[in-house]
Design a protein that fits this description.
- This protein has about 450 residues and is α/β, with parallel strands linked by helices.
- A hairpin with a 2-residue loop joins strand 11 and strand 12.
Length: about 450
């Protein structure tokens, strides 16, 4: 039972070996709570929740931390725009984040540190960086001196010149070098701030994760995860802060990054206005459908989100729940060991969820036609392996129950439309057939070989 993961730092797949033989420490970057989260924010949560579930089958103790950034210029602006307090904005969107992520069947992390609760630790880390010559104070700011670190840029595989050329760097007069980044910045009278040796101010964004990891998980952790968009500059700067604050001690053994989500074939971006908020998607699809769609692609591959992809995910889950429905009366043999099965082995291979899902479908087919003790064992395998991916968690009656809207067509009317559509096809009046099919789809009617069902 060897787990391999792709280490972004080394650029290759490696056998995972924790620092402590039976304990794993994992940290994943959480949201900045100034708005509802989009589906791109949900991908790392689902990916590393799946990894968390897998790690718990391999090791006696897994400590999973995911932070909340509850102080940031974006939160301050949202509070100003809404004429409310920063605390009110961050509290509302923190609760919304927890609610959305729970609907996607994510387990709650063991530790959820909030940035505002760790300012003392951040100030202490800044002071240690100044004392060791890796940071300097200037005009109320404290900046990390990137030239003081020999291998700065190793995670993102960039030289200092490349990083400056590829980033919008604010070259302030108080910077010794244009690429130096802010650890602490002054706060105005109408801005939140904390007293520090450098004056009243607030921490830079990169600092919080380093300080919270140090406090809750130690100087060196096993896994640090997040989206590929965080690799530079956020994770690069975390490495610089933590490594230099701890005398060169290794910060993270395995860096793991999930790829972007595209919307209808285009990169999701603010400029295109194609952000898909999780709560909006949940109005049309269950959280399990969103989770299945995310897991249908390997976490290091770009994922295309579209109506077609979500509809396919829902149909795939219908099939999987259908296999369970076929064996609803079969007892489960809990003694079955899943570790040798192809689904478990796929997950051990750098969390290869597409292969695992493919094998899950095959297992479901085999379970449906098996008999006696074999069927009981296969049902246990099916439930245990799907649970590892956070799938098939709903009771059957809940999954297949469809609430019919007040304006929904009655069954007799649906029968008539289906018959009319079939006749239109027989008459080769395909335009009319398509119109009738679309009308049925708007009513949530799914056509099957046997007839139709409300889906």
């Amino acid at each position: 039972m060897t787990l391999t993961v792709y280490n972004s730092y080394s650029g290759q797949k490696e056998i995972f070996t924790p620092i402590e033989p039976d304990t794993v420490k994992m940290y994943v970057c959480g949201p900045t709570v100034y708005n509802r989260v989009h589906i791109g924010n949900a991908r790392p949560v689902v990916v590393f929740d799946t990894l968390y579930r897998l790690l718990k089958t391999l090791y006696g103790k897994v400590i999973y931390a995911r932070n909340i950034t509850d102080i940031d210029d974006k939160i301050m602006q949202a509070a100003k725009d809404n004429n409310e307090s920063i605390a009110a904005v961050s509290a509302r969107y923190t609760d919304a984040y927890f609610e959305d992520m729970a609907k996607l069947n994510n387990l709650e992390p063991d530790i959820i540190p909030f940035a505002t609760q760790h300012v003392d630790e951040m100030i202490a880390m800044v002071q240690s960086l100044i004392d060791s010559g890796h940071a300097y104070a200037a005009e109320g700011h404290v900046l990390f001196a990137v030239k003081s670190m020999d291998d700065y840029g190793k995670l993102s595989k960039r030289s200092l010149d490349d990083m400056l050329a590829g980033a919008r760097v604010e070259v302030a007069a108080y910077k010794e070098y244009a690429g130096d980044f802010v650890l602490w910045k002054p706060s105005g009278e109408d801005e939140p701030g904390w007293d520090s040796p450098w004056g009243r101010g607030r921490p830079g964004w990169h600092l919080e994760c380093s300080a919270m990891i140090e406090k809750h998980l130690g100087n060196t952790i096993d896994i640090h995860g997040g989206g590929i968009d965080l690799q530079f500059p956020h994770h690069e700067n975390e490495i610089a802060q933590s490594t230099c604050a701890h005398g060169g001690e290794q910060f993270v053994r395995y860096w793991m990054h999930n790829a972007y989500i595209n919307i209808d074939g285009e990169k999701m971006s603010k400029s295109l206005g194609n952000f898909k908020m999780v709560n909006d998607l949940l109005e049309h699809y269950s959280g399990e459908v969103l989770r299945f769609a995310i897991l249908s692609a390997h976490y290091r591959s770009e994922l295309n989100f579209s109506v077609e992809a979500l509809d396919n995910a829902r149909k795939a889950l219908d099939n999987l729940y259908g296999y369970l429905q076929a064996v609803a009366d079969v007892e489960v043999d809990d003694s079955v060991d899943i570790t040798g099965h192809a689904i478990y082995q796929a997950l051990l291979d750098d969390l290869n969820t597409p292969i695992a899902i493919r094998e899950l479908h095959g297992l479901g087919k085999a379970m449906k036609v098996a008999k006696g003790a074999e069927q009981s064992q296969l049902k246990s395998l099916f439930l245990k392996t799907s649970s590892l991916m956070g799938l098939l968690q709903q009771p059957l009656d809940q999954w297949f129950y469809v609430e019919v809207a007040e304006d929904a067509l009655a069954d007799v009317d649906v029968d008539a439309l289906v018959a009319e559509m079939k006749q239109a096809r027989a008459d080769k009046n395909y335009a009319l057939a398509d119109q009738l099919r679309d009308r049925l789809a708007e009513q949530g009617i799914v056509l099957t070989r046997e007839g139709w069902k409300r889906g």
